[in-house]
Amino acid sequence: MKKILNNYSSKNDKNILQVIAYKDGKKELEAYKNGFTREDTMNVMSVTKSVTAILLGIAKDLGYINSIDDKIMDYYKDIYTPKKGEKTIYDVTIRHILTMTAPFKGKSEPWTKVFTSDDWTLKVLDFLGGKSGITNEFRYYTLGVQILFGIIGMKSKMNVLDFANKYLFSPLGIEKRVSANCKCKEDQMKYTLSRTNHGKVWFLDPKDNPTAGWGLALSAYEMAQIGLMVLNKGVYNNKRIVSEKWINEMTTIQVAQDPKKGEYAYGYLWWMPKRTNDIVAAIGDGGNVIYIDKNKNIVVAITGYFKPLIFDRITFIEENIVKALEE
Q1: In a domain, 201, yes or no
Q2: Full-prediction pTM beyond 0.90?
Q3: Residue 200 within a domain
Q4: What pLDDT score was predicted for residue 5?
Q5: C-alpha to C-alpha distance for 66 and 89, rounded to whole angstroms
Q6: Structural domain of residue 247, as residue ranges?
Q7: Domain-located, residue 87
């Protein structure tokens, strides 16, 4: 671990806790810091979004979702009534949520209003739409992803935590997740900022469904298994987890950021940090990441405790780990 950090390091890499890397399906690197082991987990923040994309693909494969071009309101019309005068919401599709091109009102995300509500999903819908209509502009909006779990829950008639445990985690050999038991703002802050093992948990909303945009606790080893499944086009240990068609769409560029805001492109809740379909990544705050190089058959997973303004771990991976694996 020390050698790797010394090859290419900066103050932004001090919070790394776990690193694991595979090439051609073989584990080539496994390293830990601060007393962490393979079994320990961290809140991997927005890596959760990329797991959500896989779960949506599984739901679609199972027939719970007809098309990602379905309108959001087709699913919510019986339980949610838009505010008077709101028209744009009726044109928003699942695809818009998956590609971060859905329109939302306001300049910033309404965290407090959502987190103090009884139903986070329905409260998020209050902010979907707006007078500007559908612009298809990329706008990274974490709270909006919760809408997708609402759909999975309604159509499967399962709690989404149970759905994830049954259809994704268990087939990957990942221990089932349970509630993080966060009941108040203080619990949430502790969960987010903790530098110690989080356990086999997922942050749940007041309706006992998991948060779709953040809050899943995983180890680097567990993230790597997800990465290996994605690299193998939806198959893990010779078992089909999600369709190849979905994996291909999910990891293909769907929208690109404004170059002034960043060079990354986006698929379905997965990043393309080089604006090429050959390299894809699930990226979360703190530098939590699943990195996949399709051409080189490389999967790298890293966990780190939360530090503000640390997001991109791609350069660290490519300058350290990918080069070492190639040598």
Answers
A1: yes
A2: yes
A3: yes
A4: 47
A5: 19
A6: 2-63+152-326
A7: no
Q: Are strands 178-179 and 201-202 parallel, antiparallel or unpaired?
A: parallel
5-47 confidence digits (pLDDT tens): 455 556 678 899 999 999 999 999 999 999 999 999 999 999 9
What is the domain-level CATH number for residue 36?
3.40.710.10
Digit-coded pLDDT (tens) for 275-291: 999 999 999 999 999 99
Gyration radius of the chain over CA positions: 19
How many folded domains does the chain comprise?
Answer: 1
Q: How confident is the model at residue 1 (pLDDT cuts 50, 70, 90)?
A: very low
Residues 6+ apart with CB under 8 A from 144: 97, 100, 102, 104, 124, 128, 213
**pLDDT of res. 183:** 87
Is residue 100 included in any domain, yes or no? no
Contact call for residues 271 and 262 (beta carbons, < 8 A): no
Count Cβ atoms below 10 Å from residue 83 Cβ, excluding itself: 11
Neighbouring C-beta atoms of residue 309, cutoff 10 Å: 8
pLDDT at 317 over 90: yes
